[in-house]
C-alpha cells in the first residue's frame, strides 16, 4: 500500500472554492460544559492502520448514535485508502446532525480544502511544515475553523505562531504510532488560555478522560474507544465521566 502521505499528495482538490457557514465549535464546547458534560469529539473511523478489521455500519447511523450519546462534535475521516473514509460520507453526516463536524484528512495543499464542506478542518503541523500559516489563513478565508494538530513542543510553537486558536495535541506519534497520554500532560501548560485545547488519541476509559481534563484539555477527540462496540453507550460513558 502507498504511504498515507504519498496518497495525500496525489489526492485532487475540489472543482470550486468552497465557502462554509461553520457551526461554532467554541460555542458547542461551552454549551456542553454548561450542561455538565465533558466535551467529546467522537470520530467516525471505519478502519485505520492501527485497528483490526473494518466497521461496515452506515456512517450516518454511527454519527447519530454518537450525538445521541452526547458528543459535542464529530470527526469524520475522509482519507479513503488507509482509513476507509470518504468526502461523501462526511457530507451525508453533516446533513444528518446539528453538531460541528471536523474533516479529518491529510491536507497538504490549499485546493484540497475545497474537496468538501465541513465546520472544522484538520491541519497536521508535522506534515504541512512551512505551509501552516498560509493554510490556516486559506481555511479561515473559506469559513472553516482550523484545528491544528501537534505532537511536539516545536510543532506547538509553530501552530501558535501561525495563529491557531484551536490546537489538538496528538498523544500518538504519527511516525512510530505509539501512544503516550503524557504528551498532553507535558505540552498543555504551554498552550495559552485563549486557545482551545483538544486532547487527541489513546483515550479509552473514564480515568483517561479525567486525566486529560486535569491536564487542561478543553475537549477530547476519541475514535477507537467509541467505534469499538455500542457507539452510543461508549460515547455516553465518556461524556459523563466527570
Ligand atoms: O482512535 P483514537 O486513539 O481514539 O484516536 C482518534 C484520533 O485522535 C486519531 O484517529 C487521529 C489523530 N490524529 C490523526 C491524524 C490522522 C488520522 C487519524 C488521527
Structure at a glance:
The chain is 38% helix and 16% strand.
Average pLDDT level = 95
Helix and strand sequence: HHEHEHHEEHHEHEHEHEHH
What compounds sit in this structure?
Answer: indole-3-glycerol phosphate
CATH class: Alpha Beta
Strand order of the largest sheet: 1-2-3-4-5-6-7-8
The tally of strands reads 8
Keywords: Amino-acid biosynthesis, Aromatic amino acid biosynthesis, Decarboxylase, Lyase, Tryptophan biosynthesis
Organism: Haloferax larsenii
Protein name: Indole-3-glycerol phosphate synthase
InterPro entries: Aldolase_TIM, Indglycph_syn_Halo_TrpC, Indole-3-glycerol_P_synth, Indole-3-glycerol_P_synth_dom, Indole-3-GlycerolPSynthase_CS, RibuloseP-bd_barrel
Commentary on this structure:
The chain is globular and about 40 Å long. It is α/β, with parallel strands linked by helices and 242 residues long. The termini are far apart. Strands 1-2-3-4-5-6-7-8 form an eight-stranded parallel beta barrel, surrounded by seven helices. The mean pLDDT is 95. It has one domain: TIM Barrel (Alpha-Beta Barrel), CATH 3.20.20. α8 links the parallel β5 and β6. α3 runs parallel beside α12. It contains twelve helices and eight strands. 38% of the residues lie in helices and 16% in strands. The structure holds indole-3-glycerol phosphate (IGP). Indole-3-glycerol phosphate (IGP) binds next to β8 and α11.
Amino acid at each position: 500500500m502507498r504511504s498515507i502521505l504519498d496518497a495525500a499528495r496525489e489526492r485532487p482538490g475540489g472543482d470550486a472554492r468552497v465557502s462554509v457557514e461553520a457551526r461554532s465549535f467554541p460555542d458547542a464546547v461551552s454549551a456542553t460544559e454548561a450542561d455538565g458534560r465533558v466535551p467529546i469529539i467522537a470520530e467516525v473511523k471505519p478502519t485505520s492502520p492501527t485497528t483490526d478489521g473494518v466497521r461496515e455500519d452506515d456512517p450516518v447511523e454511527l454519527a447519530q448514535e454518537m450525538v445521541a450519546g452526547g458528543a459535542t462534535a464529530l470527526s469524520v475521516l475522509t482519507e479513503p485508502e488507509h482509513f476507509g473514509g470518504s468526502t461523501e460520507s462526511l457530507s451525508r453526516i453533516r446533513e444528518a446532525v446539528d453538531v460541528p463536524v471536523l474533516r479529518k484528512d491529510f491536507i497538504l495543499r490549499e485546493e484540497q480544502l475545497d474537496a468538501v464542506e465541513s465546520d472544522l478542518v484538520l491541519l497536521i503541523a508535522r506534515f504541512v511544515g512551512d505551509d501552516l500559516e498560509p493554510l490556516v489563513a486559506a481555511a479561515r478565508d473559506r469559513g472553516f475553523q482550523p484545528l491544528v494538530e501537534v505532537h511536539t513542543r516545536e510543532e506547538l510553537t509553530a501552530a501558535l505562531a501561525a495563529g491557531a486558536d484551536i490546537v489538538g495535541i496528538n498523544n500518538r506519534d504519527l511516525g512510530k504510532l505509539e501512544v503516550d497520554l503524557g504528551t498532553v500532560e507535558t505540552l498543555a501548560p504551554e498552550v495559552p488560555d485563549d486557545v482551545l485545547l483538544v486532547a487527541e488519541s489513546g483515550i479509552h476509559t473514564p480515568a483517561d478522560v479525567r486525566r486529560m481534563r486535569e491536564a487542561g484539555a478543553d475537549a477530547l477527540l476519541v475514535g477507537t474507544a467509541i467505534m469499538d462496540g455500542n457507539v452510543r453507550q461508549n460515547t455516553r460513558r465518556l461524556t459523563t465521566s466527570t
